Amino acid sequence: MSRRKVEFTNRAGHTLAGALELPESGAPKAFALFAHCFTCGKDVIAATRIARSLADQGIAVLRFDFTGLGGSDGDFANTTFTSNVSDLESAAEFLAREHQAPKLLIGHSLGGAAALVAAKHIDSVEALVTIAAPATPQHVEHLFADQACDIRRDGQAEVNIGGRPFELGADLLEDLKLWPVEKTVGDLRKPILIFHSPADQTVNVSEAAKIYQAAKHPKSFVSLDDADHLLSRREDAEYVALTLTAWASRYLKLNAPKAESQDRPSVERGEVLITEKDTRFLRGLYTADHQWQADEPTDKGGTDLGPTPYDLLLMSLGACTSMTLRLYANHKKLALEDIQVHLKHRRIHAEDCADCESKEGMIEEIERRIHLEGDLTSEQRQRLLEIADRCPVHKTLAHPIGIRTCLTESE
């Protein structure tokens, strides 16, 4: 699993900060959008753990700070439930534009209520999940009931929620009344999974019952037993993620063969094939038996769904180095327990290169750092360092190589 910071603009012109959790390797099976709880941020522990667990299962997850929270622009005092729904729709548009439209929508607490509303307007969403969500956004008023009169009288007031101060505006109180979420759920007609704990002290489990009764089939309810509202225990968040993935696989067809797999190009053994997956930088990489992909980071115009060509080059050298060292250590019966190879590529001034004949202009340099674990003598370590330079890929890169390029006939 890998995390990437992202930013996108909402419909009000504010820049919203997000985090995109991606599978460690390979293309995501699907993209999901996560809406966090009221006054929480994208890095709240439940959202973080669930998103990372889903990424480990192959589902990419975007979580973000709503307007005025965390790293996002805007004034939280001017936000409403309507603006939260709009932010969710903007996030879905960002995913569709930069990656892939979200098929799964997940909402925690008030984020769950927002997800129930937004799902109707995000056509790509094929399944919906709520976690500890209220059946109506008005439920959140109990968190600041004592200050409601002050908010209406003064236009806004400071309230304490979860031990932190927040400015809330009168528009929020009026807006909360406008959303009959239970009716929205009844009209949704998308598969829905409802998680809730009977021990939840913030949103009573009876709210989950209202959502379940309003929803049309297919619908499912999973009790979280003694979990707290924020799923602060790791095992509760991971249970939600694993159960969610198993449930979603039925409706998102996550385990079904992809069209690309069915139409996998034929490649001769000993040859590799590179194909285009989009009109920017995403490329399919194929051998006779394996497939992967390459890309460029977003700041270079790519979608960051795979390693760059230079990353692949370093990986090739590093893998060959590690294999060569292991082969030698096994043959010599050395007590080598583990090998780590770190590599960097850079361009440096020739005059800074101690081993280079030319001292003018710029040259390419690969830095390779090898970490060896095991009960090895200094002589054995030095010998392994020498063996590293004998790796076949190292020899190929270090010696002149001819590259012959030609065009093939169009079919």
What is the structure about, briefly put?
The protein is α/β, with parallel strands linked by helices and 411 residues long. The chain contains twelve helices and 15 strands. The protein has three domains: 251 residues, Alpha/Beta hydrolase fold, catalytic domain (Rossmann fold, 3-Layer(aba) Sandwich), CATH 3.40.50; 42 residues, no CATH class; 90 residues, 2-Layer Sandwich (GMP Synthetase, Chain A, domain 3).
Describe this structure in words.
This protein has helices spanning 45-56, 81-98, 110-118, 148-154, 170-176, 181-188, 206-214, 234-252, 259-262, 309-332, 378-388, 392-398, and strands at 2-9, 15-22, 30-35, 59-64, 104-108, 127-131, 156-161, 164-169, 192-196, 219-223, 273-276, 283-286, 291-294, 336-349, 362-374. The protein has three domains: 2-252, Rossmann fold, CATH 3.40.50.1820; 259-300, no CATH class; 309-398, GMP Synthetase, Chain A, domain 3, CATH 3.30.300.20. The chain is elongated. It starts with a strand and ends in a 13-residue tail after the last helix. Residues 256-262 have low confidence and may be disordered. It contains twelve helices and 15 strands. It has 411 residues and is an alpha/beta fold. α3 (110-118) links the parallel β5 (104-108) and β6. Strands 1-2-4-3-5-6-9-10 form an eight-stranded mixed sheet, sandwiched between helices. Strands 11-12-13 form a three-stranded antiparallel sheet, with no helix packed on it.
